[in-house]
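Below is a filled-in request sheet from our internal design queue. Each sheet records the structural input a requester submitted and the sequence that came back. We keep these sheets so that new team members can see what a complete request looks like end to end.

REQUESTER: design group, bay 2
PRIORITY: normal
MODE: inverse folding
CHAIN LENGTH: 85
BACKBONE (tokenized):
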């Protein structure tokens, strides 16, 4: 296991953003390549810390834009059943 030094004195809340799509009849998920040690070059979901008065939805939008440049992505909190052909 990687030894990660504690950076914060108190608990912090983080959010990861998961984006699924179907392209060419295949399920795909958006991932980013980490650029900081100790996880440099590893794949991950875009994520980050939620700011003090920020809502979870606003944090998810900000994080997605900061990490990927994407904006105005459709969101759904309802489970969706899809058929993959």
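RETURNED SEQUENCE:
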């Amino acid at each position: 296991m990687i030894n990660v030094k504690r950076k914060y004195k108190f608990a912090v809340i983080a959010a990861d953003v998961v984006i699924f799509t179907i392209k060419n009849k295949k399920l795909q998920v958006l991932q980013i390549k980490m650029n900081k040690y100790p996880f440099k070059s590893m794949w991950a979901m875009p994520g980050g810390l939620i700011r003090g008065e920020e809502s979870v939805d606003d944090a998810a939008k900000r994080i997605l834009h900061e990490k990927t440049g994407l904006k105005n992505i459709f969101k759904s909190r309802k489970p969706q059943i899809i058929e993959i052909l």
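SHEET NOTES:
- Residues 34 and 40 are 5 Å apart (CA to CA).
- The two ends are 39 Å apart (CA to CA).
FILED BY: M.R.
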